[in-house]
Design brief:
Layout lengths: L3 E8 L2 E5 L7 E2 L7 E2 L2 H9 L8 E5 L2
Antiparallel strand pairs: 1-2, 1-4, 1-5, 2-3
């Protein structure tokens, strides 16, 4: 079961994650991503980004 949720988007070679403490900065490292307590909050953050980013909430373990 997922213990936290991140905001992610796809790219050609994998996923990018919304960086912690940044409005629109992306990172390839999941540990540097902004973690949310639930899918609702992560989805809300993803929907507030410009649509060109096509971001989504992604549950992760740890």
């Amino acid at each position: 079961m997922a213990t936290s949720v991140v905001v992610a988007r796809t790219k050609i070679d994998g996923l990018e994650y919304l960086a912690d403490g940044a409005k629109v900065v992306w990172t390839d490292v999941a540990q540097a991503a902004a973690h949310f307590d639930n899918v609702r909050e992560a989805t809300r953050a993803a929907m507030r980004l410009p649509s060109r980013f096509r971001a989504f909430a992604f549950p992760v373990a740890g």
